[in-house]
Amino acid sequence: VPVESELLGAKLEAARLQKKMALGECLPQVGLGISYGYNDIMGTATSRGSFNGIAFLSVNIPISDLGKMPSRARRLENEVQKARNEKEYLDAQLALRRQKNMLELETAYEEALVARDALSSAKDAESRLRADYNAGLATIMELLEAELSVRTAHGEYIDKCIAYYTSRSAYQLNN
């Protein structure tokens, strides 16, 4: 999975958590505490210490934020939806890029095969013309044109192979 998709997934999760935190801030909060201790001020063997304990309860109801909460919740929900939309858009773009790279790879492969066949045909034609030239049936000009055709076909084949390996690298990089 590309890094961009992972980052947008993290952004979406962060937006969800921010929304939960904002909702949690408006909920009542309850705190309970207990403390217990032993106290011996004199510190002598004959003195008797005392045990002390305390319990407390705290309730916090945020009344001042209740009016702001609906608009804040809508804003945070919009941010969550925006992050979700960005992630879906990027995922769709990545899928299209993968399809495009696959099509380019297939096309480059087919073009390399065609160029290989053209090179083979040019070599065969040049070989036949060389035999005809040696037999006196072809001119030097025809032989030179055949050799030029082989060199041109060879250059095309190399170009198509380069295009194929470039497409293959792009495909492997994005998948």
Architecture overview:
By secondary structure, the protein is α+β, with helices and mostly antiparallel strands. It has three helices and two strands. It has helices spanning 3-25, 69-134, 140-174, and strands spanning 29-39, 50-60. Strands 1-2 form a two-stranded antiparallel sheet. 10% of the residues are buried.
Specify the structural class: alpha+beta
Query: Whole-number average pLDDT?
Result: 88
**Largest sheet entry:** 2 strands, antiparallel
Q: Report how far the terminal alpha carbons are from each other.
A: 8 Å
SS element count, helices: 3
Cα shape: rod-shaped
Report the β-strand fraction as a percent range. 5-15%
Give the helix proportion (percent range). over 70%
Order the strands across the largest sheet as they lie in space: 1-2
Element string (H = helix, E = strand):
HEEHH
Number of strands: 2
What Rg, in angstroms, do the CA atoms define? 40 Å
Low-pLDDT runs of 5+ residues are: none
Give a short synopsis of this structure.
By secondary structure, the chain is of the alpha+beta class. It has 3 helices and 2 strands; from the N terminus they run αββαα.
Provide tags for this entry.
two-stranded antiparallel ribbon, 3 helices, 175 residues, alpha+beta, 2 strands
Write the layout of secondary structure elements.
Blueprint: H1 3-25, E1 29-39, E2 50-60, H2 69-134, H3 140-174
Antiparallel strand pairs: 1-2
Helix pairs in contact: 1-2, 2-3
